[in-house]
Amino acid sequence: MxxxxxxxxxxxxxxLLLVVVPEACRxxxxxxxxxxxxxxxxxxTDWVIRxxxxxxxxxxxxxxxPPNATTHAHSVxxxxxxxxxxxxxxxxxxxxxxxxxxxxxxxEFVLKKRKPHYFVCGERAGLHCTAGQMxxxxxxKSSACRD
Length: 147
Ligand SMILES: [Cu+2]
Known about the structure:
Blueprint: H1 2-20, E1 29-31, H2 44-51, E2 59-62, E3 76-79, H3 82-87, E4 94-97, E5 107-110, E6 117-120, H4 127-130, E7 135-138
Parallel strand pairs: 1-2
Antiparallel strand pairs: 2-5, 3-4, 3-6, 6-7
This protein binds copper (II) ion (CU).
GO molecular function, one term: electron transfer activity
Keywords: Signal
Domain Phytocyanin: 28-142
């Protein structure tokens, strides 16, 4: 009887901990595309749906090889608007990480602002964005734990 009561108490404490410490309180680090990394032809919109939701102060890590004889060069740009994102129009886009910055452990972008982030690859004048599917939108949610 006593042992059963102890087990019940342990379960109650565990449940309390789960309620008090929600998972979203921790900032997380995501490697964009996981094993596929940042590359031509991968569906990053699906990746975002699988990995989300994202929270403020989470970080996205872009890893890609520097230009060489066997791989395409890649880069990371932020679009200013949904329209520019949809059309892959890079004229007003902001360079976030150049072709060399994805090497090694990659380029880490911290999602500091609670606004839509329109990420695209800017190579080949937008071709990697249009035909290569190298684009995705992330809108971090706020978390009471981080405010
Ligand atoms: Cu690219």
